[in-house]
Amino acid sequence: MNPEDNKSTTNDQPSSLLHINHMNGKSFKTETEQQPSSTSTTSTTTNEMNEYAFEPRISSQLSCSSLTAGLDEMGIFSSQDSDILLMDDFETGFLKRKVNDITEEEVVTESHDHNTIGQQPPRKKISTQPPSSIKTLPTEIKLSSFSSQKINKNVRKPKTIYKIVVPKKNSNTTGNSKHHQTKSKKGQASSNLRDIQLPNLAISKNEREFSNEENSLQIKAKRGRKKNTTGKDQEIIPLDSNGIFSNLRILFIQNNIGTVRLNLMKEKVKAKGGMVVDTFDTSVTHVVTELPGKNVHKVLGLLDNKSLEGIHVLEPNWVSTSIMYDKLAKTERYEVPLYKPTSPNESQSSTSLAEKTHENMNSGESESQSSHKSYHALKHFKPEKKKQDISLSPIREQSLSPSPIFKSDLEFNTPSYSRTFSSSSNSNYPLSTMDRNKNLKDPLTKLFKDEEKPTDLLSEMIQEARNLTEAGFYSDEGEYSDRMIVEESSDSEEDMKKVYSTLLEHDEKKGHEDSSETALSKKSQENQKYDSFSCMHKHTYGEVEINPNKLIIEKLQILLDHYQRMRDEWRTLSYRKAVSALKKYNKPVSSYKEAIEIPGIGDRIATKIQEIIDTGNLRRVESISKSDEVIKKFSAIHGVGSKAALKWYALGYRTFDDILKNVKLTHAQKVGIECFDDLQERIPRDEVTEISKVVEDAAHSTDPKLQLFTTGSYRRGNPTCGDIDILITRNDSDGKSHSGVLPKIIENLHNRNFITHDLTHTQEDDISGKYMGICRLSGGKYRRLDLFTVPYGELGAALLSFTGNDIFNRSIRLLARKKKMKLNQHGLYKNIARGSGGVSLNEGKLIAQRTEQEIFDALGVPWRPPNERSC
DNA sequence: ATTCAGTTTGG
DNA sequence: CCAAAC
DNA sequence: GAAT
Ligand SMILES: O=c1ccn([C@H]2C[C@H](O)[C@@H](COP(=O)(O)OP(=O)(O)OP(=O)(O)O)O2)c(=O)[nH]1
Ligand SMILES: [Mg+2]
Question: Lower Cβ count inside 10 Å, N or C end of chain A?
Answer without folding.
Answer: N
